[in-house]
Amino acid sequence: MRYVFISIICMVVISFFILSISTSVEIAKSDDETFTSIYHWEDSGSPTFMFDQHSSFYEFYTFKDDPAFVMRKIGHFVVYGMIACTIFIVLPLEQLWVRCLLAWISASIIGLVDETHQHFLIGRDGRVLDVLLNMSGALCFVMLMVVASVVLNVGRELPVKKVGD
To answer: If DSSP codes are grouped into helix, strand and coil, which group holds residue 39?
Structure first.
């Protein structure tokens, strides 16, 4: 239970950091630089957009010859992979699969929170495809951490408990 608490603390801190940066960037880009000027509340001011299949949240990307678009998507993959790795490292669990699962779930929830937040920003749009991209990056990087953990622990002796100790 203690490790779930550590995961939740990591999720809250990292989510706060990501949302703060995202909001600060949008405020800096806006004309009057106020908090209320960067959000649109009239048509989509509640999280019910997630249940509307016609919402922009479920639209596919319009692929253009835009190298910045591809770099942003690679950035999603790498950043959420690094978030998952950070959580994986912070969790002091012996069971590798539990660390892996908690790190992946935590990074995936952070990605969902970020994309939900982006849906409400005027200059941004949150997409379910980005959530899936975030989850994929987190999973790939966690798997790399598992492989690295196994490879680095190959030469070490496992502690042997004697009966009666």
So the answer is: strand
Residue 141 has a pLDDT of 95
Do 45 and 121 contact (CB within 8 A), yes or no? no
**pTM reported for the whole predicted model:** 0.72
Contact criterion met (CB below 8 Å) for 134 and 75: no
- For 15-61, the pLDDT digits (tens) are 777 767 666 666 666 666 555 555 555 455 566 666 677 777 677 77
Amino acid at 106: S
| Helix (H/G/I), strand (E/B), else coil: 121 | strand
Q: Which amino acid is at 122?
A: I
- Report how far apart, in Å, the C-alpha atoms of 139 and of each of 9, 25, 102, 120 are: 20, 28, 11, 27
Helix or strand or coil: residue 66?
Answer: coil
The residue with tokens 């490292």 is: 89
**Residue 39 — φ and ψ, nearest 5°?**
-110, 145
- Amino acid, single-letter form, for residue 104: W
Residue 57 CB partners (closer than 8 Å, separation 6+): 49, 50, 115, 119, 126, 127, 128
Q: What is the pLDDT of residues 64-76, one digit of tens each?
A: 667 777 888 888 8
Domain ranges in the chain are 1-18+64-149
